[in-house]
Every structure is written in structure tokens, then in C-alpha cells.
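Action item from last meeting closed. Structure (277 res):
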């Protein structure tokens, strides 16, 4: 049995695949303090579809459902951290989100990925990793003691890797193992709205939505990132909260000799611990 492995690292804009993975948590700013940091435990339902066609391939790659086809977990506890600050009416936020999943399964259907065909009943190992960074700068056009509403510009940047390794047919008497791995750093601009409202003493409601729909030449993308939550201040500097977030991504590139695409959806609750000062 022989072993072959192909690893390709691609720029976000240029030949190759242009993809984006999960979005990070939205910062929930405090009305009473100008600096805050929060950590979140997010428990989403995950739905991921990936298609990769190699530059020299004659056939389009399979649209792969990573949860159904490759047995990656469709629910998991995911960590996230957010840091923010307010400078007058300007609000700056930075978020980090990490997702790492692995799966192992005998295929129930034939899959073509990056010019390799994995047949039915082949045992394959797969992985999907992403580190997501989000930076936003907002302006609060309404800023009152009990209410803040503003608009923001931001960048979502994702360091993303997907891999598949397994046996492929090589004649009647032998088979060989083929591995394919694709990595990319993909930034996307966003526009959004945010708001925080003091519902009662020590209780704040917050919400945020970020949006992008972009098509330039051979590239197209879509992003919706929405979150709503409640924070309760147990002291002047510490709050606990709950939130619900919905994230939907679609990003890809289509050219005459190459195409790749990913669709990614997350939705579920999160618990939050926040410090502010």
C-alpha cells in the first residue's frame, strides 16, 4: 500500500478556494462601563457543506455534507472571547472563536474531493478546523444612560482547514491511501447595527446583526450574523448572561478551470460571563 499526500495553502484572494467558516460571538457592551471582556460557552447546531474541485479535474467535486457524509459532530460546546471599549461615541470590539472537529466513517456514497474519488464503503478520516477573528468599529448615533444604538463596520477573518484521508481503489489486488488538505485565510468586510437597552435595574438587553452580500467577478459571498441576549449585573463590574446566535455563511469562487465553495450555518444558545470597568 502506498501513501500520497497533497497539501495546498491558498491566499484569500487569488487562485484557489475562497472560503469562510463560523462567525465569532458579538461583543455585548456595558452601558455603565467603557471597557469590557466576556467569555462565552456556545452550544450550536452546526450544518456545513463543502465542495472542492481541483484545477486539473474534469468533473465538479461533490457537495459534501460534513455532518452526514463524514460524521462530524453537529453539536458541540465552543469557546469564544470578546473584548470591547468605548471612546465617546466610538465603540471598538474584537472577538475570537475556535472550532475544531474530526470524524471517521465508512462512506455511504461516492465522494470526489480535490480530484480524488473516495468510493462507497471506503473508510475515511476527516477534519474541519477554523480560527475566526472579528474586528468592528462602531458609532453610537443614540447614546443615553439607558439606551445605546449604533452602526458598525467590521472585518471577519477566518483561518480555515478542511481535510480528508482514506482508501481509494487501485486495481483488484491493492488499494492506496490518498489525503487531501485545503487551508486558507479569508477576510470579509461587514456592515452592522447594534444596541443595548437597560430593561430594569441591573438587567440589560443587547442585540447585534452583521450583514454582507458581495459578488465581484468570479467571487461571491453572503454573511448573516445575528445575536440577542440578556445580561444581569451581579456587581458593578461583573455580569452573567444568556444569548442566542444565528450565523449563516456562504463564500466561494467559480472560474473556468477551478471552483470551490463552502456553506456554513450555526444556531444555538450561549452562556456568558462578563467583566467591565
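Sequence:
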Amino acid at each position: 500500500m502506498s501513501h500520497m499526500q497533497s497539501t495546498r495553502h491558498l491566499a484569500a484572494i487569488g487562485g484557489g478556494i475562497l472560503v469562510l467558516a463560523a462567525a465569532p460571538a458579538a461583543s455585548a457592551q456595558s452601558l455603565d462601563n467603557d471597557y469590557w471582556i466576556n467569555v462565552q460557552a456556545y452550544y450550536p447546531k452546526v450544518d456545513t457543506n463543502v465542495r472542492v474541485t481541483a484545477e486539473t479535474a474534469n468533473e465538479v467535486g461533490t457537495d459534501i455534507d460534513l455532518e452526514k457524509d463524514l460524521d462530524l459532530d453537529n453539536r458541540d460546546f465552543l469557546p469564544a472571547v470578546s473584548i470591547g471599549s468605548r471612546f465617546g461615541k466610538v465603540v471598538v470590539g474584537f472577538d475570537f472563536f475556535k472550532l475544531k472537529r474530526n470524524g471517521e466513517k465508512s462512506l455511504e456514497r461516492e465522494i470526489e474531493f480535490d480530484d480524488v474519488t473516495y468510493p462507497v464503503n471506503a473508510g475515511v478520516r476527516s477534519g474541519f478546523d477554523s480560527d475566526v477573528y472579528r474586528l468592528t468599529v462602531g458609532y453610537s448615533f443614540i447614546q443615553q444612560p439607558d439606551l445605546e444604538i449604533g452602526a458598525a463596520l467590521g472585518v471577519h477573518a477566518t483561518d480555515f482547514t478542511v481535510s480528508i484521508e482514506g482508501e481509494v481503489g487501485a486495481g483488484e489486488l491493492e488499494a492506496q491511501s490518498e489525503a487531501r488538505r485545503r487551508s486558507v485565510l479569508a477576510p470579509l468586510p461587514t456592515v452592522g447595527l447594534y444596541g443595548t437597552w437597560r430593561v430594569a435595574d441591573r438587567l440589560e438587553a443587547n442585540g447585534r446583526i452583521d450583514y454582507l452580500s458581495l459578488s465581484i467577478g468570479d467571487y461571491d459571498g453572503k454573511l448573516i450574523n445575528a445575536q440577542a441576549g440578556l445580561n444581569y449585573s451581579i456587581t458593578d463590574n461583573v455580569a452573567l448572561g444568556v444569548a442566542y446566535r444565528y450565523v449563516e455563511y456562504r463564500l466561494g469562487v467559480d472560474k473556468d478551470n477551478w471552483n470551490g465553495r463552502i456553506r456554513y450555518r450555526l444556531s444555538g444558545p450561549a452562556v456568558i460571563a462578563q467583566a467591565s470597568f
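Note appended to the action item: The chain has one helix and 15 strands.
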